[in-house]
Amino acid sequence: MTCLICAGHAESVECVAGWEERHCSQCGSYRMSQTLVLVMMEEGQIFDTPRMREWLTTRRGCVSIPSIEPHHAILVT
Fold this sequence. Notes:
This protein has two helices and four strands.
């Protein structure tokens, strides 16, 4: 499976409907809304990987597995 943030190798983890969960050795564990995944694919957008990893690290101070929704996405502009 592929990491949705860095496109590296990641393990897919079963989770609730409407979400994709991954565990990447570089990005860590996270959940991403399927809506965001589809929008990014349709629009050909990619994450700003370093900044997204920083956001995930910060969020892990509050929750063990951060959830990325469309308004959290830090994209390459």
